[in-house]
């Protein structure tokens, strides 16, 4: 009933032009067709009654009947005898996509190029993976548990692993207990499950601008409305944030406290505290995604937002894909108590549980090998690559582009000079066998064209040198072309 | 704008009683509060303007102002200066749950009892898992690939595995090619991802009645409307199905072609063909979940719906949890071409990919060990348990309960005598250390109280014997109690 009134409101906004050469019934049908294909009129909802519609537009009922018939012929609507005309579901291939799929496609195609200089990989090179330790762990688990290693597992995760992870989180300044820890198959699943547990159609979500497309895609696919909060050098603009908090009541705010994807920005301690105050004041939650803790190249320790979270406002999602190995598909969420049950159920209907075998192996690894040594190695390695990257950028980019020096993380976020579009640069670099990520991938509208992101963790020093030289040369060439074509 | 009109339509349906002792502003506030907590009024949508509302109800504007103020005090609404009053998002703990969470809870608590006679497990016992073969596979993959085994993986899955799986599917009569195969982390994830790719708020989904709660939960959580089609002994009632297909245009029909969860029913060849005809005629898709192919105890081969699918209407989801090992978290989808891209994107925003390490190990296992021997062993073992189960049921249940003889699968679906409620029986059996699944778990309304499901794959012959005796005794005791308490 409600939906049909909604449809009436929409359809009655159409304007019919009686002086047009296009017959009125066709004008009406075309107008309604547009609303169906744009997803404005919901599947299986009713079109307004023929008489009422004719009255509204001041036309004969035959006009409406013909319009509906035309739509039915195109299979855009269907009729039920005695009860009216209803909107057909869109064909599967025409369902509006919740994700900026263009982005995914280019991302995927980039990955398949061989021997390219690939600035898009954000995880450690294979040689840095603790493969031998995990081989020992897998075998020890199989010898100990036999088939038991492969049974169904509690949806929250393997209890001894959750205990280990609490000890591990203490190193990050995060104090929690196993009943607050949910095991997940990577950070992306964490975001997806939190959305499933908490987001309902029409809810508002605040994200940083720019933000990570994978997260935005998960929110959008749940019917969330995204509001972008601009980033400054030390975190979100808190004035704009509070103004928006007065206007909207977001279900949650999605952010990264340090080495943000894509900008590399870290929040100041002041902004972290302010963010928590505002979440409390306006009664909302914060999703903190933490991918890069161990990649800090400063002496100063960094502090996760969750470590300051005395009011239980932060849902902390930790990935092991960057610091450990992406192929494990492993991560954790630290949950405020209120959402335990909902998240556990969401995990169950998502994939029942994360592989119990891999969970057991990770537990063995953490217990027998500890974390410190691998983390220190990874940090040392990341720091070397970072300094190599900076020195090459100074040589080849500093005269034509700007970039922050995050002193951590695995990427540089580079602002291009006016006149050089990021999309154009990226596609021309592909011809030079260099793969970069354009800023549009991190922009909900897809319109950003000023930035590129260069991830350096998985490249040899030589490739960093050659890659940045080629990028700098190309930017200069494009600037010159532009100069030459000026009127 | 639209949402505020929708809210007006809803709120103007309220009746205020001027003669009541309860002040009018309070009546109005309570009416609106009910609509907010029931989720009728969407978060962040606008309440109708004060003057218009006052006019509608024939009251002073002060009454409306006071009603809105009361709601604001309760934090159910919030106001924006100059633009009106808006519905607050419900607190997280009050969001209407999409899943029948009661079911999940009892399921989980059942799993934690030790030494119980557990009739809820549907996978093979640990001793039947091919652990040694997988140990070899894991080590071979690590020796061959080193760290490469743990890199990010194409969202569709490991190409050589998808090739292996096509060969494997040929044994089932399913001919397909690797580009139609999507690797998933278990069948439940398959259902979740298909929902993400295809379902939009308001879409209709047809399910069997009764059906699997995990699937229903995934559809509901996407805003799907479920229509239940009753099952007969040889599949859905095709007359009712066609009648509903005339009334609604479902996005898809979810079903299992044999050894259905929970009833154990298999479709006749005639109904399988009819189902495909109807899907084509009414332009919809069928999701076929296949968990139990290899557990057929008859001489006759069984035929998946997908094997008959010449029109590409079937999305075939195959689990490896039952026949292989649940802890692998591995499965596959065979996709019609039209939905490839959408499903790949859904997988990406769900968990990027299934563990590449486990995918590689499964590929090695299939290549080096083949499938035939393990499947034959599992079938032999399942058949023995099934016959043991039937003979014990004949002894202890046949005088008081009815059950089908599916000659396949891993469960019996038992109809209780009138006067013995399934919920009551299940909770009383818990006291006797026997865990069963009540029929309500497979009913969307949760009201079914006539059936229990007994899964036998993971029980010793002794436990089957003792368990069924205890159940039979309890049913008889409950019938006697009922007889004694008759007036």
From TrEMBL, chains A, B:
TM region(s), chain numbering: none
GO molecular function: DNA binding; DNA-binding transcription factor activity; pyridoxal phosphate binding; transaminase activity
Keyword Transferase among record annotations: yes
InterPro entries reported in the protein's UniProt record: Aminotransferase_I/II_large (IPR004839), HTH_trans_reg/aminotransferase (IPR051446), PyrdxlP-dep_Trfase (IPR015424), PyrdxlP-dep_Trfase_major (IPR015421), PyrdxlP-dep_Trfase_small (IPR015422), Tscrpt_reg_HTH_GntR (IPR000524), WH-like_DNA-bd_sf (IPR036388), WH_DNA-bd_sf (IPR036390)
Every HTH gntR-type domain range: 22-90
Sorted UniProt keywords: Aminotransferase, DNA-binding, Pyridoxal phosphate, Transcription, Transcription regulation, Transferase
Family that this chain belongs to: In the C-terminal section; belongs to the class-I pyridoxal-phosphate-dependent aminotransferase family.
Protein name, as recorded: Aminotransferase
The species this protein was found in: Anaerotignum faecicola
Lineage: Bacteria, Bacillati, Bacillota, Clostridia, Lachnospirales
């Amino acid at each position: 009933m409600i939906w049909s009134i909604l449809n009436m409101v929409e359809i009655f906004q159409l304007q019919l032009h009686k002086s047009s050469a296009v017959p009125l019934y066709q004008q009406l049908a075309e107008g309604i067709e547009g609303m169906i294909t744009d997803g404005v009129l919901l599947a299986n909802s009713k079109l307004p009654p023929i008489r009422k519609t004719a009255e509204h537009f001041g036309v004969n009922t035959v006009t409406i009947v013909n319009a509906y018939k035309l739509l039915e012929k195109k299979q855009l609507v269907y009729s039920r005898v005695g009860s009216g005309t209803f909107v057909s579901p869109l064909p599967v291939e025409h369902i509006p996509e919740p994700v900026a799929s263009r982005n995914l496609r280019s991302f995927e195609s980039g990955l398949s190029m061989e021997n390219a200089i690939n600035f898009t990989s954000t995880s450690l090179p294979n040689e840095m993976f603790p493969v031998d330790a995990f081989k020992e762990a897998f075998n020890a688990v199989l010898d100990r548990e036999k088939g038991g290693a492969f049974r169904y597992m509690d949806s929250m995760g393997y209890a001894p692993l959750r205990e280990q992870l609490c000890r591990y989180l203490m190193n990050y300044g995060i104090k929690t207990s196993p009943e607050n820890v949910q095991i997940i198959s990577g950070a992306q699943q964490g975001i997806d499950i939190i959305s499933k547990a908490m987001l309902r159609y029409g809810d508002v979500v605040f994200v940083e601008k720019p933000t990570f497309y994978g997260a935005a895609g998960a929110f959008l696919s749940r019917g969330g409305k995204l509001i972008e909060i601009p980033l400054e050098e030390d975190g979100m603009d808190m004035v704009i944030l509070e103004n928006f908090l007065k206007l909207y009541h977001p279900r949650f705010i999605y952010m990264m406290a340090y080495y943000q994807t894509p900008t590399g920005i870290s929040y100041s301690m002041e902004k972290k505290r302010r963010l928590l105050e505002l979440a409390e004041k306006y009664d909302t939650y914060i999703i903190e995604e933490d991918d890069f803790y161990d990649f800090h190249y400063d002496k100063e320790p960094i502090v996760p937002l969750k470590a300051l979270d005395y009011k239980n406002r932060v849902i902390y999602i930790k990935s092991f894909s960057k610091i450990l190995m992406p192929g494990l598909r492993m991560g954790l969420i630290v949950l405020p108590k209120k959402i335990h049950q909902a998240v556990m159920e969401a995990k169950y209907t998502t994939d029942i549980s994360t592989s119990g075998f891999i969970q057991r192996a990770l537990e063995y690894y953490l217990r027998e090998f500890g974390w410190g040594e691998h983390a220190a190695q990874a940090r040392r390695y990341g720091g070397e690559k970072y300094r190599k990257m900076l020195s090459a950028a100074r040589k080849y980019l500093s005269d034509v582009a700007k970039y922050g020096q995050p002193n951590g993380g695995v990427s540089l976020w580079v602002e291009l000079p006016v006149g050089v579009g990021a999309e154009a640069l990226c596609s021309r670099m592909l011809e030079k066998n260099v793969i970069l990520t354009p800023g549009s991938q991190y922009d909900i509208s897809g319109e950003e064209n000023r930035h590129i992101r260069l991830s350096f963790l998985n490249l040899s020093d030589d490739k960093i040198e050659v890659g940045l030289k080629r990028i700098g040369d190309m930017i200069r060439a494009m600037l010159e072309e532009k100069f030459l074509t000026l009127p």
